[in-house]
Amino acid sequence: MLTIHTAALLLPGGGRPPVPGGAVAVRDTVVAALGPYEELAAAHPGARVRRWPGLLAPGLVQYDAVRLLTEWYFPDPREAGTLGTEPLTGAALDGLGPDSAWRPGSVRRGLHRMLGLGTTHLAGRFDDATLRGPVARSGLTVLPPARTAAGAPCLDPFAHGRDLAAAAHGPLTEGARADFAAFDAPDEPALLAEGAGRCVGTVLGGRLVYRRR
């Protein structure tokens, strides 16, 4: 089945101009078409339609993935009363005991947090078995390691002054794998100002893998 995702603005990337009232048509795992919603809807009258607030943009790359998954602990929701809901780092990890006891669950939850920020690609080398399995099952695309910014790692792919061109995995292209996200922001400047936490939906290989409730 073909699904059309539409929002008030489409940012296709690759130097192409924004498309007001734009849409991305997805068939199976790939982008079938891009353009104004009216044109795509007319060409595919039987398509399922998903309407998103804000804008659609290419999925983002998490360059700090290895450090985040190995240096941070992502609490289980059931631990919120004692550990809170935000990731633990540094000395706070000491009280958790051997990392073999808590690392696997933390990695899975960390990957889910990344999906909730519009992440579709991870840069790094995931040689450790604790990381390799969950990353492979997540469906996220792994890219070669890249130089990361100095300082502490950050979950938001827009951190360290990255704009959409620097944070995105690449432009949305017909025939390419359908990896993109919806953000509840009116335009790119607002998105950069507010951060990837404005993500309301992430599509990975054509599948809706995250949707803010």
Topology overview:
Blueprint: E1 2-6, E2 9-10, E3 19-20, E4 22-27, E5 30-36, H1 37-43, E6 48-51, E7 55-58, E8 60-62, H2 65-71, E9 72-73, H3 80-83, E10 88-89, H4 99-115, E11 119-123, H5 129-138, E12 141-143, H6 164-167, E13 180-183, H7 188-194, E14 199-204, E15 207-211
Parallel strand pairs: 1-6, 2-7, 8-11, 11-12
Antiparallel strand pairs: 1-4, 2-3, 4-5, 7-13, 9-10, 13-14, 14-15
Helix pairs in contact: 4-5
Comma- or semicolon-separated keywords:
213 residues, alpha/beta, Urease, subunit C, domain 1, 2 domains, 6-stranded mixed β-sheet, 4-stranded mixed β-sheet, 7 helices, 15 strands, 26% helix
Summarize the structure.
By secondary structure, this protein is an alpha/beta fold.
Please characterize this protein's 3D structure.
By secondary structure, this protein is an alpha/beta fold. The chain folds into two domains: 2-59 and 171-211, Urease, subunit C, domain 1, CATH 2.30.40.10; 61-143, no CATH class. It is built from seven helices and 15 strands. It has helices spanning 37-43, 65-71, 80-83, 99-115, 129-138, 164-167, 188-194, and strands at residues 2-6, 9-10, 19-20, 22-27, 30-36, 48-51, 55-58, 60-62, 72-73, 88-89, 119-123, 141-143, 180-183, 199-204, 207-211. It has a six-stranded mixed sheet with strand order 3-2-7-13-14-15, with no helix packed on it. Strands 5-4-1-6 form a four-stranded mixed sheet. A three-stranded parallel sheet has the order 8-11-12, with no helix packed on it. Strand 4 (22-27) and strand 5 form a beta hairpin. Helix 4 (99-115) packs parallel to helix 5 (129-138). The two termini are 24 Å apart. The model has no long low-confidence stretch (mean pLDDT 93).
